[in-house]
Amino acid sequence: MTKPIIEVKNLAKNFGDNVVLKDITEQVNPGQVIVVIGPSGGGKSTFLRCLNLLETPTSGEVDFNGENLTTLDPKRVNELREQMGMVFQNFNLFPNMTVLENIKLAPMKVKAVDDAAATKRAHELLKQVNLDDHADTFPSNLSGGQAQRVAIARALAMDPKVMLFDEPTSALDPEMVGEVLNVMKELANQGMTMVVVTHEMGFAKSVADRVWFMADGFIQENNTPESFFSDPQTERAQDFLSKILM
Amino acid sequence: MKKKWVLFLALVIALFTGATMTGTTAHAASDDSLAQVQKKGTLVMGTSPDYPPYEFQATVHGKTKVVGMDVAVGEKIAKDLGVKLEVKSMSFDSLLVALQTGKVDMVISGMNPTPARKKNVDFTHTYYQGGYSIVINKADKGIYKNKDSFKGKTIGAQTGSTMYNESKKQTTDTTVKGMTSVSDLILGLQSHKLQGVAMEKPSAEAYVSNNKELASIPSDFDLSASDTSASVAFKKGSTSLVAAANKSVDQIKKQNLVNKDYLPAAGKYLKTNTVNTSMLHYWKAFLKGVEYTLIITVCSVFFGFILGVLLALARMAQGGPLMTGLRWLATAYVEFIRGTPMMVQVMFVYFGLGLVVNLPALMSGIIAISLNSGAYVAEYIRGGINSVDKGQTEAARSLGMSRGYTMRYVVLPQALKNIWPSLGNEFITLIKDSSIVSIIGVSELIFQSNIVRSDTYRGVAPIAVIMVLYFILTFTASRILNFFERRMQHD
């Protein structure tokens, strides 16, 4: 049995009186692509953000490679975050830096990579996301799809073991969704471990190893995409699928 | 004579330093003042060089220096003690505080030994006995004879001075108007806002001999000797120093040195001074003013910015009791600084801190203005940091960047861009507000212009000059700021 890279145990999170996550226990194995789907407000994004401690869990633990993040000192958490790239719904590129600088910043400051090496690696990554001709562009001059691909390249620049995607296509115009999903598919094919929160059912069907259906603060169903979409086990999932597949 | 010891100032200092000050005064009981001065080798004299012929600035061999009969008196005392004289300029109001806080060893500034002043400092015997005159326009010479001729008219005198008080007491149906500087009073006279100006006789004569449109008439005030005499002031309790100085003062009196040597010498300086009253002739004085204004502004902006960043971060600190305490402290600091006048802060740093460490006026001014500016900049920066989207922080943290790196490389640069116009405003405000340090005698533009005004007996021209100079400074600054603002535009 392979050792899981991410292990979530009895994770719970509330914002004041608002209970968002209730007792989640799941695990992600290396190389797996997990797609988290479910209705809005079901806690998907909060769950994802608990994995790299952007949100501090109220109780329970999140283990990365066997280390419990919730008990580590901030310095070690920073080190482990390097290994978990994250891509946001709104890209969150640094607007005051060029595409190339966006990608180079963290490797140079955090890993002390020298400028030449960082630049070389950044160009490689830009080629991987088909944007090498935009290296010196500022983010405000990029389309949404381009910006999101830069954001993926930026996260990859830290050579992460896991990539977390928080609704990466939700803020995009429909015609740009494809270019981003293609990059993600390619990444999955290369064997990257991925946890993807999305509403793209097509992506879930074709790329995911497991689908986690999340609603009301629980993972209601953990299934293969084939069985989940053809034969959902829970009533909650049936209800959800009937609404979106119309 | 001259302005009285301003009680307000004493109050401010006393309020802040209270116990410390009484402590120092009590200490002086064991008197080694003379030995200390001799050990130092210099005697520091404080004076307010805007009062010819007592003390004023003159250009000697291309260099600006303080001259006048009081300086001659100071030189005599220093020579008799076998030490060097060092002259420190500051506003009259600040002189006695400077003496009490050890910024200067003695004050010679046409100061008369009134009972109120005697409570705070020790005086020598008087070295000069003057009298009062009233300066009028020459055209009115037939109309006014003495203080009683001004019924229904207005006469002017320096605010808080003995002349001012006596003019009020000893005239009937006459309006007495007070102004801070004698140059302003003369200007008021020439523009017919005033019909006469009461001042000391030597000063009156200096003004009359330098301005053909003025004339002087006797005042006929009824005055006691202590109101018209001038003495040297020392720190309370410096008995040995006063005794030594008294020997010199007695010699001056006995040999009539003031009238025989000092006044004529001062007169000569006055003449060389006023041969050429064109503003161009004083370009060096103005240049020095610009230089100091820039030094103060640039240093204060630099340190104020650093302090502002630290304060802003402290105000946003979150976590345990330590962080809460830090936040509370920073908030209290910002509120307190914003809630007190910058002028009071400048005086407090110079005189108040002066009790603990002896800081030069320029450094005190820079410290005070930096401390002040930091409070305002902190608020701008806090607003700037809050204006940066939270997603930026999350993106940076998700890449493994620490809180500090995130702030430094991601949030602050963007915050800075957002608040650049506000910071620019602060910079330009500082250029103008740096004028406040003129009260502690830093030779920035305002201070220099006051000196040029009293040197040239011209009221308006120097003001016009510094107005233009200030505008050139602020305009250039705003152009430079705009340039950088454009360079930061990426979207």
Query: How far from one another are the termini of chain A?
Result: 40 Å
CATH superfamily of chain A: P-loop containing nucleotide triphosphate hydrolases
* Major sheet strand order of chain B: 5-1-6-13-7
Strand content of chain B: 5-15%
Q: Sketch the major β-sheet of chain A.
A: 6 strands, mixed
The name of the CATH topology of the largest domain in chain B is MetI-like fold
The helix content of chain A is 25-40%
Describe this structure in words.
- The complex is a heterodimer of chains A (246) and B (491).
- With 246 residues, chain A is an alpha/beta fold.
- The longest helix of chain A is centred in the last third of the chain and has 16 residues, at 174-189.
- Chain A has nine helices and ten strands.
- Chain A has a six-stranded mixed sheet with strand order 6-7-8-3-9-10, with helices on both faces. Chain A has a four-stranded antiparallel sheet with strand order 2-1-4-5, with helices on one face.
- Chain A is 39% helix and 24% strand.
- Chain B has 491 residues and is an alpha/beta fold.
- Chain B is 59% helix and 14% strand.
- In chain B, helix 6 links the parallel strand 9 (154-158) and strand 10 (175-179).
- Chain B starts with 6 loop residues before the first helix and ends with a helix.
- The chains are: A alpha/beta (246), B alpha/beta (491).
- At the A-B interface, helix 2, strand 6, helix 3 and helix 5 of A face helix 16 and helix 17 of B.
- Chain B: The chain crosses the membrane at residues 292-314, 348-371, 460-481.
Topology:
The complex is a heterodimer of chains A (246) and B (491).
Chain A: E1 6-15, E2 18-28, E3 33-37, H1 44-51, E4 59-64, E5 67-68, H2 74-82, E6 84-87, H3 99-110, H4 115-128, H5 144-156, E7 162-166, H6 174-189, E8 193-197, H7 201-207, E9 210-215, E10 218-223, H8 225-230, H9 235-244
Parallel strand pairs in A: 3-8, 3-9, 6-7, 7-8
Antiparallel strand pairs in A: 1-2, 1-4, 4-5, 9-10
Chain B: H1 7-27, H2 33-40, E1 42-47, E2 50-51, E3 55-60, E4 63-67, H3 69-81, E5 84-89, H4 92-100, E6 106-107, H5 115-118, E7 121-129, E8 132-137, E9 154-158, H6 162-170, E10 175-179, H7 182-190, E11 196-200, H8 201-210, E12 214-218, H9 225-228, E13 229-235, H10 239-254, H11 257-275, H12 283-315, H13 321-338, H14 342-352, H15 361-387, H16 390-398, H17 403-433, H18 445-456, H19 461-487
Parallel strand pairs in B: 1-5, 1-6, 9-10, 9-11
Antiparallel strand pairs in B: 2-3, 3-4, 6-13, 7-13, 8-11, 8-12
Helix pairs in contact in B: 1-4, 1-14, 2-10, 3-10, 3-11, 12-13, 12-15, 12-17, 12-18, 13-15, 14-15, 15-17, 16-17, 17-19, 18-19
